[in-house]
Amino acid sequence: KVIMKKIGIQGIKGSYHDQVAKEYFGDSIEVNEFLSFDELADSVACGDSDFGIMAIENSIAGSIIPNYALIDNLNLNIVGEYFININHQLMVYPGVKIEDLKFVSSHPMALLQCKKFLKRYPNITLVEEKDTADVAKIIFKNEIKNTAAIASVEAAHIYGLDIIFSNIQTIKNNETRFVIISKDLSKNENDKASLKFSLSHETGSLASVLSILKNYNLNLTKIQSLPIVEIPWKYSFFIDTTFSNINDFNKAFELINDKAESLKLLGIYKNQMKW
Predict the structure, then answer these.
(1) CB-facing half-sphere around the CA of 191: CA atoms within 13 A
(2) Consecutive sets of 10 residues in the chain, 275 residues long: mean pLDDT of each?
(3) Closest CA relative to residue 160, chosen from 144, 178, 192, 137
(4) Backbone angles phi, psi at 208, to 5 degrees
(5) Are the CB atoms for 144 and 135 separated by under 8 Å?
(6) Which residues contact 25 (CB under 8 A, 6 or more apart)?
(7) Could you tell me which residues come within 8 angstroms of residue 75 by beta carbon, excluding any fewer than 6 positions away?
(8) Staple partner for 8: which of 52, 73, 111, 209, CB 3.0–4.6 Å?
(9) Taking Cα atoms as reference points, which of 42, 63, 19 lies closest to residue 31?
(10) pLDDT in tens, 143-158
(11) Residue 175: which of 86, 109, 111 has the closest Cα?
(12) Contact at 8 Å (CB) between 176 and 86?
């Protein structure tokens, strides 16, 4: 008997996380659905899910900052990444027209990414929910006629809704980056790493870390600062860096370790970013 991998996702069948799970791992997986990122991360940390899929940043709306903290606090590892184009559809209970709507309900990120379209309908109230596909499911199940969902084409098919406006995201090329998280580090040949470090307030301390990256041919693809909650006005930095030689990376890591007050490897994995 084939033991199926258990993949934790934020959202339900038809959500963007569900799409990533299937595209990344193939169809022969068991999907564990969670409505919050906290529950998803916990399920990976305690071993109920072998891997988790977690949105980490969007090309329009930016980083999903709390997810960095979740990965860090639970000592999870990033073992892969995956990018998908997010195309948002406005969908309704069959037969409902735009004039009938009082509410549009979706995940806050989806609402943000469709801001320009939604501005055309100032009398429609926006309602934030935990998952795009879940809203679609509820509308169909409860035959709700005054509310539209913003979700994927797949969600409209699964839950039997009519798409009344297609691709309503403000910027047509709207990519989200997802990370694949696990309790264990990836053992494969890899060319991208995620690190977290904190520095003293000395002048130039960040510049000296960045120059180490440059000297060892490491390309900085992302830098994100996050407040250290216990110490006001002190920050940790999360960085993603790509490299072609693992030895260069290892040497740079040692040098950063000497400079930084703390340093942690959050994962080494395969770069999927297409420039």
Answers:
(1) 9
(2) 88 95 94 96 98 93 90 97 96 97 96 96 96 97 98 97 97 94 88 95 91 97 90 91 96 96 96 82
(3) 137
(4) -70, -35
(5) no
(6) 5, 7, 51
(7) 45
(8) 52
(9) 19
(10) 999 999 999 999 999 9
(11) 86
(12) yes
Question: For helices 205-215 and 246-259, what crossing angle results, to 10°?
Answer: 160
Q: Token pair for residue 220? A: 């900085």
User: Which has the closest alpha carbon to 148: 106, 207, 120?
Assistant: 106
Instruction: Name residue 264's beta-bridge partners.
Output: 196
Token pair in block for residue 191: 């060319």
Cα angle, residue 39 at apex, residues 34 and 42 outer, rounded to 5°: 130
* Cα dihedral 267/268/272/275 (nearest 10): 100
The amino acid that residue 260 corresponds to is A
Positive or negative: CA dihedral 84, 90, 93, 95: negative
DSSP string, 184-196: S---S---EEEEE
> How far is it, in rounded angstroms, from Cα 274 to Cα 185?
24
Q: How far apart are CA 98 and CA 90, in angstroms?
A: 10
Rounded distance between C-alpha atoms, residue 70 and residue 208, angstroms: 28
CA-to-CA distance for 6 and 10, rounded, in angstroms?
Answer: 13
For residue 274, give the amino acid letter. K
Cβ atoms of 256 and 212 within 8 Å: the answer is: yes
Outline where the chain has alpha helix (H): 16-25, 37-45, 65-73, 108-113, 115-118, 132-141, 153-159, 205-215, 246-259
Which phi and psi (to 5°) does residue 253 adopt?
-60, -45
